[in-house]
Design a protein that fits this description.
Distance between the termini: 32 Å
Radius of gyration: 33 Å
Length: 510
């Protein structure tokens, strides 16, 4: 493979102005002037702020404990993150892999140090292969994202995503749980103003009203394989994970707009228009209502559950649906639809509306109607007993589940942060002893402490065998051992210079 062509080097008399720095790169292709200022600084100066070092110098063990990585492995992880970020910037600017290689391999570009080290240790062929693999991942990531130019565009993209979610069939208990998780992340994205947002697993679990284990299963088995949600970076310390909301499967058939077409009807079975997983396009729920109710104790797993959320969301979008229609719009089986309708009717949340069903005023309290046309049917006489969500949670025995979950997560956060603080301070286990019935803390031994029997008069050190004073050594006032040498006469500036030289020699040898 031919060696990369580097640009002209700056002479010693030539000033290093900012205008010249922006021209460093490939003269015949993409230069730093074509990239954003943040990308140019990352290529030229590297990760000065330590943004890409977060989480690179530690890892989670099999028991969930945080352990430090080896220094070389940690530096390699940080270097790979910087290289991937530069590749994404070049891909967004319309560059090529050859231009990326020239930017990374330039000797004055600190951001390409990782690729340069690979070329130095393993040769240019292996470094080129590594850059090509990073480039393939970066181009796939850039092509799978949408370029948003304004805040209005971001909100429009989230509105289109919500429409796509509402008209997708979420089948089975696993699919309905995945919808709750996806709706929780959509709430976070709307608060952040874009599809890229930050949230921890505990926050998402509290928002969706499920456990962390259930949330992980929904992400790993449904949302991640389906292309709905991607975790770009795992959270560390007090920072949440970085998530990105995608558009789901590329071959997903689009149904009618759920809010603009509330009168859409499912296929007619008498005409032979039987629905299958490949042809079913009648799913239509109001995910806003699901997002408002899913965190309540009344919709926990052992209470009304996710099927009740789907029925309420479907009837809120289009009242008057029959059980057969709800099997399609709410993505439920026939048995689950009839069972859920009977349960909600028994609690006074559903009422007859012609041949179908509609939500009662009690069910609509706090959520309202989705569109002006979606008027609920008049309440029958006499009106069923009014039952609140809290009363339902108490009846099912799930009252306080959300509060207990939040308390558990708070305790886990406190323990996790205490473990990180202990790890950062390199603490050792405390030693205690019982003295006169009281537990006292025993100070940890130090390597420079000496037994009291070695202390001589005037701070001298006694030989434990002969009992004579040892020349060249002295005991400090705090019991530490001091070696006297001619270097002790050096000034403070000389000691600082010697320390810097020794530290440089140590890092070079390492």
């Amino acid at each position: 493979m031919p060696s990369p062509v580097f640009p002209r080097q700056r002479s010693e008399e030539e000033p290093a102005t900012q205008s010249h720095r922006l021209q460093v790169g490939a003269p015949d292709g993409l230069g730093l002037g074509s990239l954003p200022p943040a990308a140019a600084d990352l290529i030229l100066l590297g990760d000065l702020g330590g943004r890409y070092a977060t989480g690179a110098y530690s890892r989670l063990g099999g028991d969930g404990a945080v352990r430090p990585r080896e220094r070389r492995q940690a530096e390699s992880e940080q270097g790979h993150r910087i290289t991937a970020a530069i590749a994404c910037h070049v891909a967004r600017a319309g560059g090529t892999v050859e231009q990326l290689t020239r930017l990374l391999m330039h000797p004055e570009h600190e951001g390409g140090r990782h690729a340069q080290v690979i070329a130095l240790r393993s040769g240019h062929a292996r470094a080129q292969g590594y850059v090509e693999r990073v480039w393939a991942s970066a181009t796939a990531l850039v092509e799978g994202t949408t370029d948003v130019g304004s805040r209005e565009g971001a909100h429009e993209g989230l509105a289109r995503l919500r429409e796509r979610i509402e008209t997708t069939a979420w089948r089975g208990e696993r699919g309905r749980t995945a919808l709750r998780v996806l709706r929780a992340h959509l709430n976070f994205a709307q608060a952040a103003g874009g599809r890229l947002h930050f949230a921890s697993e505990r926050q998402a679990a509290e928002e969706a009203g499920i456990s962390r284990q259930t949330l992980r299963q929904a992400y790993e088995l449904v949302l991640k394989p389906g292309g709905w949600l991607r975790r770009l970076r795992v959270g560390y310390g007090t920072e949440g994970s970085t998530w990105y909301l995608a558009d789901g499967p590329a071959d997903l058939q689009r149904a009618g707009v759920s809010r603009d077409q509330p009168s859409q009807c499912p296929p007619d079975g008498e005409l032979g228009e039987w629905t299958t997983p490949e042809t079913d396009t009648g799913a239509d729920v109001d995910s806003r209502v699901i997002g408002l109710l899913m965190g309540h104790d009344a919709f926990a797993h052992h209470a009304l559950g996710s099927s009740a959320l789907m029925v309420i969301g479907a009837l809120h979008a289009r009242p008057g649906q029959t059980p057969a229609e709800l099997t399609i719009s709410a993505s439920l089986s026939r048995a689950t639809a009839y069972r859920t309708i009977a349960r909600l009717q028994g609690h006074g949340l559903l009422q007859r509306s012609g041949a179908g069903w509609a939500l009662t005023t009690q069910a609509l309290r706090g959520i309202g109607n989705s569109v002006p046309e979606a008027a609920t049917a008049p309440a029958p006489e006499p009106e069923p007993a009014v039952v609140g969500w809290d009363v339902l949670a108490t009846a099912y025995g799930t009252a306080g589940v959300a509060a207990a979950r939040r308390a558990l997560h708070a305790a886990e956060r406190a323990a996790y942060r205490a473990a990180l603080a202990a790890l950062d301070e390199r603490r050792s286990p405390a030693l205690t002893a019982v003295v006169d019935g009281r537990t006292v803390l025993v100070p940890g031994p130090r390597a420079d402490e000496i037994p009291t029997g070695w202390h001589g008069p005037d701070g001298t050190v006694l030989d434990p065998v002969t009992g004579r004073a040892v020349s060249g050594w002295q005991v400090a006032t705090d019991g530490r051992l001091i070696l006297l040498s001619p270097d002790d006469d050096r000034s403070y500036d000389e000691l600082v210079a010697a320390h810097t030289t020794a530290l440089h020699a140590w890092e070079t040898a390492a």
